[in-house]
C-alpha cells in the first residue's frame, strides 16, 4: 500500500515501561520498516525528557510538556492538546492518527481533534474494564465519546473486543447472532489484532541441569488484581504435595508482605524464592530458571507474560480469565478457575506433565514463533489503515448526529465540546496561520541512516585504534 | 466455541472444582446506595429550583423564614464555570512553564538521558539497527547522527 | 483452510478478516445473573428503621423546642428519661432472652446499672460546663451546625438488623453517626438557660441516639408485628409533638415519613425493571480461597 504518515498518540510511552509502551514501539518500528513514516506523540517526563527525540530505528517522538495527574496519565480536558496537535500534524503532514489505551486522554483528544485537519483515526484498546465501579463508569463514558468519532478500532483479543464494544455504549437486544443495537453499530470498524513478542529474545535454555526439581516461575506485579491471594493460598499446599517443587517469584507490589508472611509461617524459605522487582531485560533469565509458569491473574486482556513464558519453553498454568484462553492452544497451557482447589489441581497436572517430560521446550518455542510475530501484526494493522483511508470520512453534521445519539444529557455535552472544538480550531487557524508553520522538509531515510551508521562506526573504530596506539605510547613514555 | 466457557470443563481428568462454576454472590448494597443517591440528587435539584425561583411570599407561606441569599443560586454556577476555565489556563500555564527554551540542552538531551543510550558501542547498535532484519532496540539516536541522516554530510574540517 | 470454522482463538491463522464478527459475538455476555426481584412488604419493613430513626430525631427536636421556650419542666423530662431507660432495659433483657435463649447474668446487670449511674452523675457534673460551651457563638450558627450534624447522623446511621452470629463490632460510619447526633444535642443543649435543662436534654439524647438503636436492631429480627407497631407509634408521636407550633411543619414531616415508608420502596420496585447488570469474562474474577485452614 502507499506509504502513510502515521502519528501514534498515547500517554504511555518510553521511558515508561509496560505492555502498551512496548506495543507502540514495536508496531512503529515494524511500520517504519515497511516504509511508512511514524511519529509518536506523548507527554514529557521531567526533568529532561522533553521536546523531540529520535529513537532507533528512526522513530521521532514528541514529548509534550503536559503535567501528569495520576499513574502517568494527563488530565482529561478535551481542548488543551489541540494547539500542539495541530502544529505537529501539519508540520509532519500526518494522514492518520493512531491512539492507544483507553486511559490515555491524549489519545482521546487526538481522535477528537484529528478531523479538523482531514486526518483519519484508529484507536487501539489494550485493557479490559468492568462496568460497576465509579472509576470505570467515568472512563467508559469518556471512551464512549471518543469512539463515536473514530474510524477504526483495534482490540488485542476477542474478549477485549466484546468488552470494548459494550464499553463504547452499544447495548444489544439479543445476546448474540444478529447484533441489533439501539444505536447504529458498524461492525466493520471493529478489528482484533493480537499483541506479539520478539521470539528471539525468549529462547529456551538447553543446558538445564537434569535433576528432578521442578521450578515454578511467577512473574507479575504483586497486587490484588494479579490474584496474589490465590498464590499465597496455594503455594504452601503445592510445596507440601510436591517436595521437589521450587517457586521463583519475581515482582514487587502491595501483596509482597502477604507472600513473606506465608513463607515465614510455613517455613518455606528454601522452596519459595522471592526475587523482588525484575527489569524487563532480565525477564528471560528468570524465566530460564523454571519449567512451569504460573499466572494467577484475576483479569487479563491478552496476557503477554504468558506468551513470553510459553515462548521461553515453559509450560503455562493460568487462571481462565479475560482473553487468556485465546492466547495459546490447549496443549501448551493448563487452565484453572480462580479457586484454590482448582489451581492446585491444574498445578498438579502441570507438574506431572513436566516431570514426565511430556512438554518439549524447543517445539513450544517454535510453535509460539509460528503463532505470533510483529511483522504479521504490522501487516494486519496496515490492512486496518488501508480500510480506514479508503472509507468516506464523516461530515461534521454526521459527527454531531452520532454524538447526540449518546444520550439526552451526555450526548448534548459532547456536541457542545465538539462545536467549541471547531471554534477553537478556527481561532488557531487565524492566530497561527498554516503558512507560518515550520514544515518538516527532510524525512528519515533508512538507506541514508545505514550509510551514515557504517561511516560513523568505521570512523569510531579508526579513532579508537588510534587512541589505543596513542595510549600504549603514552604508557611507555610514562614509565 | 459458542458458550465454550460454560460447557468445556477445565479439568477433564480430575474434576475437583464444581462444574459449571456456581455464580458468585455479590453484595447488593450498591443497589441501595445508588437508589438513595438517585432519590436525593433529584430531591436536591427540586429544592434548588424552588429556592431559586419561588416568590418570597410562597416560601413564607411554606413556613420558611430564613434561607441563604438567592444570589448564590446564580453565583455558585457562575463561579464553577470560571473555575473550569481557570483549570484550562492553569494547565496551559503549567505546560508553558515546563517548556524549556530553544537554547536549553534539555530539548536535545540531558544528564538523565544516559540510560537511553547503549552502554557499550561494540558491536555498534546503530549499525546493527540499520540492517533490514534487526530486532528493534529502544535506544536514543544522538542528535549528531540524526542531523547527518536528515541534513546530509557534516561540513569538512568540522 | 478456507472451510475451517471460526474459533475464538488468537494463535491460529484464520482465513477470516480481522473485523469479522462471528455469530457467537457477545455470547458470553450475562445479564442480571444473580438478580432476585424484591417484594413490596419486606422492603417497607426494612424502610421502617429509617422512619424510626427520622422520628427519633424529630421527637428530640420537638423536646428541645419545648424546653427552650419553657413550656416543659426539665424535671419531668429527667424523670421520664429514667422511666424510659428502665422500660427499655426490661425490653432489652426480654429480647436477649428471646434471641439468645438464656437470662442475662446478675453480674452483667449490676455492671450495666453501675455504668449507667456513672454516666448519669458525669452528665450532671458536666452540665454547667456544657451550658457555657458555646456562649460566645451566635444562635444562628448553632442552628446551622445542629442541622448539619443531624443530616450527617441520618445519612451515616446503620439501618441494618442485628447480624445473626453476634457480629457486634460496629462499623466506623455508625459510630460517626452516633457521635454526630450526640454532638448536635450538646450544641443545642448549650443554648438552654439552666443546668438542669441541659442535663435533662443530654440525658434524653443519650437515650434516643445511643441506646435506642441497640434495642432497634434487636427488635428488627424478633417480630415483624411489634416492629411495625413501634414504627407506627414513633412517627405518630413525632407528628403529634410537632403539631402545635405550625401546621405546615407537621404536613412536611408527615409527607417525608410516608414517602420514606411507602413511596420509596414502591419506587425501588419500579426502578428494578430498568436493571441491566452486565457481566462477562472481562470482569475481575473473585478468587475463592478455602477459609477453613486459615
UniProtKB/TrEMBL annotation, chain A:
Residues 453-479 are annotated as: Disordered. SUPFAM superfamilies: UDP-Glycosyltransferase/glycogen phosphorylase (SSF53756). Residues 211-349 form the Glycosyl transferase family domain. The chain crosses the membrane at residues 409-428. Residues 464-479 have a biased composition (Basic and acidic residues). This is phosphatidylinositol N-acetylglucosaminyltransferase. Residues 47-133 form the PIGA GPI anchor biosynthesis domain. Keywords: Glycosyltransferase, GPI-anchor biosynthesis, Membrane, Transferase, Transmembrane, Transmembrane helix.
TrEMBL record, chain B:
One of its GO terms (cellular component) is endoplasmic reticulum. The chain crosses the membrane at residues 32-54, 74-97. Keywords: Membrane, Transmembrane, Transmembrane helix. It is a multi-pass membrane protein. Residues 1-22 are annotated as: Disordered. It is found in: Membrane. The keyword Transmembrane applies. One of its GO terms (biological process) is GPI anchor biosynthetic process. It comes from the Eukaryota. InterPro entries: GPI_Anchor_Biosynth, PIG-P. Pfam families: PIG-P (PF08510). Residues 31-151 form the PIG-P domain. The keyword Amino-acid biosynthesis does not apply. This is PIG-P-domain-containing protein.
UniProtKB/TrEMBL annotation, chain C:
It comes from the Eukaryota. Pathway: Glycolipid biosynthesis; glycosylphosphatidylinositol-anchor biosynthesis. The chain crosses the membrane at residues 40-64, 76-95, 116-136, 142-160, 172-190, 196-215, 224-242, 248-271. It is found in: Membrane. Keywords: Glycosyltransferase, GPI-anchor biosynthesis, Membrane, Transferase, Transmembrane, Transmembrane helix. Belongs to the PIGC family. This is Phosphatidylinositol N-acetylglucosaminyltransferase. It comes from Rickenella mellea.
Amino acid at each position: 500500500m502507499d506509504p502513510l504518515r502515521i502519528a501514534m498518540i498515547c500517554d504511555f510511552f518510553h521511558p515508561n515501561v509496560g505492555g502498551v509502551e512496548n506495543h507502540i514501539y514495536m508496531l512503529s518500528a515494524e511500520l517504519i520498516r515497511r516504509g511508512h513514516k511514524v511519529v509518536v506523540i506523548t507527554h514529557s517526563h521531567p526533568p529532561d525528557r522533553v521536546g523531540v527525540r529520535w529513537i532507533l530505528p528512526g522513530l521521532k517522538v514528541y514529548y509534550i510538556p503536559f503535567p501528569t495527574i495520576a499513574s502517568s496519565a494527563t488530565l482529561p480536558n478535551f481542548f488543551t492538546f489541540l494547539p500542539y496537535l495541530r502544529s505537529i500534524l501539519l508540520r509532519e503532514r500526518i494522514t492518520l492518527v493512531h491512539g492507544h489505551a483507553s486511559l490515555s486522554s491524549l489519545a482521546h483528544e487526538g481522535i477528537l481533534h484529528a478531523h479538523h485537519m482531514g486526518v483519519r483515526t484508529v484507536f487501539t484498546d489494550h485493557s479490559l474494564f468492568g462496568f460497576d465501579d465509579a472509576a470505570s463508569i467515568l472512563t467508559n463514558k469518556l471512551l464512549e465519546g471518543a469512539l463515536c468519532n473514530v474510524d477504526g478500532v483495534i482490540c488485542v483479543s476477542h474478549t477485549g473486543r466484546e468488552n470494548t464494544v459494550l464499553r463504547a455504549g452499544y447495548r444489544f437486544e439479543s445476546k448474540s447472532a444478529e447484533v441489533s443495537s439501539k444505536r447504529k453499530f458498524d461492525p466493520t470498524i471493529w478489528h482484533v489484532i493480537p499483541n506479539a513478542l520478539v521470539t528471539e529474545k525468549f529462547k529456551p535454555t538447553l543446558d538445564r541441569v537434569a535433576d528432578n526439581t521442578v521450578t515454578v516461575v511467577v512473574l507479575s506485579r504483586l497486587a490484588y488484581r494479579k490474584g496474589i491471594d490465590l498464590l499465597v493460598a496455594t503455594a504452601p499446599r503445592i510445596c507440601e504435595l510436591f517436595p521437589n517443587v521450587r517457586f521463583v517469584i519475581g515482582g514487587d507490589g502491595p501483596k509482597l508482605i502477604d507472600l513473606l508472611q506465608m513463607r515465614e509461617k510455613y517455613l518455606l524459605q528454601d522452596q519459595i524464592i522471592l526475587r523482588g522487582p525484575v527489569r524487563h531485560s532480565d525477564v528471560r533469565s528468570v524465566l530460564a530458571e523454571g519449567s512451569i509458569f504460573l499466572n494467577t491473574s484475576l483479569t487479563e486482556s491478552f496476557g503477554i507474560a504468558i506468551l513470553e513464558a510459553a515462548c521461553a519453553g515453559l509450560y503455562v498454568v493460568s487462571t481462565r480469565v479475560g482473553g487468556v484462553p485465546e492466547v495459546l492452544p490447549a496443549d501448551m497451557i493448563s487452565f484453572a478457575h480462580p479457586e484454590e482447589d482448582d489451581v492446585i489441581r491444574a498445578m498438579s497436572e502441570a507438574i506431572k506433565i513436566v516431570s514426565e517430560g511430556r512438554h518439549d521446550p524447543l517445539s513450544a518455542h517454535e510453535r509460539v514463533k509460528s503463532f505470533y510475530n510483529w511483522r504479521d501484526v504490522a501487516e494486519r494493522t496496515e490492512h486496518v489503515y488501508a480500510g480506514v483511508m479508503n472509507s468516506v470520512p464523516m461530515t461534521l453534521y454526521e459527527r454531531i448526529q452520532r454524538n447526540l445519539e449518546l444520550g439526552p444529557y451526555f450526548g448534548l455535552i459532547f456536541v457542545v465540546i465538539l462545536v467549541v472544538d471547531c471554534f477553537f480550531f478556527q481561532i488557531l487557524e487565524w492566530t497561527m496561520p498554516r503558512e507560518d508553520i515550520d514544515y518538516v522538509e527532510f524525512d528519515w531515510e533508512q538507506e541514508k541512516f545505514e550509510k551514515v551508521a557504517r561511516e560513523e562506526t568505521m570512523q569510531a573504530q579508526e579513532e579508537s585504534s588510534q587512541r589505543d596506539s596513542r595510549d600504549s605510547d603514552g604508557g611507555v613514555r610514562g614509565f | 466455541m459458542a458458550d465454550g466457557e460454560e460447557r468445556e470443563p477445565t479439568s477433564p481428568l480430575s474434576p475437583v472444582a464444581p462444574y459449571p462454576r456456581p455464580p458468585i454472590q455479590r453484595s447488593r448494597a450498591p443497589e441501595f446506595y445508588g437508589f438513595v443517591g438517585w432519590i436525593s440528587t433529584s430531591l436536591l435539584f427540586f429544592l434548588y429550583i424552588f429556592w431559586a425561583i419561588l416568590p418570597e411570599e410562597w416560601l413564607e407561606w411554606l413556613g420558611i423564614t430564613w434561607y441563604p441569599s438567592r444570589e448564590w443560586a446564580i453565583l455558585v454556577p457562575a463561579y464553577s464555570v470560571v473555575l473550569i476555565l481557570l483549570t484550562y489556563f492553569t494547565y496551559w500555564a503549567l505546560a508553558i512553564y515546563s517548556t524549556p527554551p530553544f537554547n536549553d540542552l534539555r530539548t536535545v538531551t540531558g544528564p538523565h538521558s544516559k540510560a537511553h543510550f547503549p552502554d557499550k558501542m561494540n558491536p555498534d547498535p546503530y549499525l546493527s539497527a540499520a540492517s533490514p532484519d534487526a530486532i528493534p532496540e529502544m535506544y536514543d539516536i544522538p542528535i549528531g547522527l540524526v542531523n547527518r541522516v536528515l541534513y546530509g554530510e557534516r561540513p569538512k574540517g568540522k | 483452510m478456507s472451510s475451517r470454522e471460526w474459533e475464538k482463538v488468537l494463535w491460529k491463522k484464520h482465513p477470516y478478516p480481522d473485523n469479522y464478527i462471528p455469530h457467537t459475538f457477545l455470547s458470553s455476555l450475562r445479564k442480571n445473573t444473580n438478580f432476585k426481584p424484591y417484594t413490596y412488604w419486606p422492603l417497607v419493613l426494612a424502610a421502617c428503621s429509617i422512619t424510626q430513626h427520622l422520628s427519633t430525631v424529630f421527637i428530640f427536636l420537638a423536646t428541645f423546642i419545648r424546653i427552650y421556650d419553657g413550656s416543659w419542666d426539665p424535671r419531668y423530662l429527667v424523670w421520664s428519661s429514667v422511666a424510659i431507660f428502665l422500660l427499655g432495659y426490661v425490653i432489652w433483657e426480654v429480647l436477649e432472652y428471646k434471641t439468645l435463649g438464656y437470662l442475662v447474668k446478675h453480674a452483667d446487670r449490676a455492671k450495666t446499672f453501675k455504668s449507667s449511674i456513672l454516666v448519669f452523675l458525669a452528665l450532671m457534673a458536666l452540665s454547667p460546663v456544657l451550658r457555657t460551651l458555646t456562649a460566645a457563638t451566635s444562635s444562628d450558627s448553632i442552628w446551622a451546625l445542629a442541622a448539619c450534624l443531624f443530616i450527617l447522623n441520618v445519612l451515616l446511621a446503620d439501618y441494618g438488623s442485628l447480624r445473626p452470629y453476634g457480629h457486634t463490632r460496629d462499623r466506623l460510619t455508625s459510630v460517626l453517626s452516633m457521635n454526630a447526633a450526640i454532638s448536635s444535642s450538646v450544641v443545642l443543649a448549650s443554648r438552654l438557660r439552666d443546668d438542669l435543662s441541659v442535663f435533662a436534654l443530654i440525658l434524653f439524647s443519650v437515650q434516643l441516639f445511643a441506646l435506642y438503636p441497640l434495642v432497634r436492631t434487636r427488635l428488627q429480627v424478633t417480630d415483624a408485628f411489634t416492629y411495625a407497631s413501634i414504627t407506627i407509634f414513633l412517627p405518630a408521636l413525632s407528628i403529634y409533638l410537632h403539631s402545635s407550633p405550625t401546621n405546615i411543619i407537621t404536613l412536611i414531616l408527615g409527607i417525608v415519613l410516608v414517602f420514606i415508608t411507602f413511596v420509596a420502596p414502591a419506587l425501588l420496585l419500579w426502578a428494578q425493571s430498568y436493571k441491566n447488570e452486565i457481566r462477562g469474562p472481562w470482569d475481575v474474577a473473585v478468587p475463592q480461597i478455602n477459609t477453613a485452614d486459615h
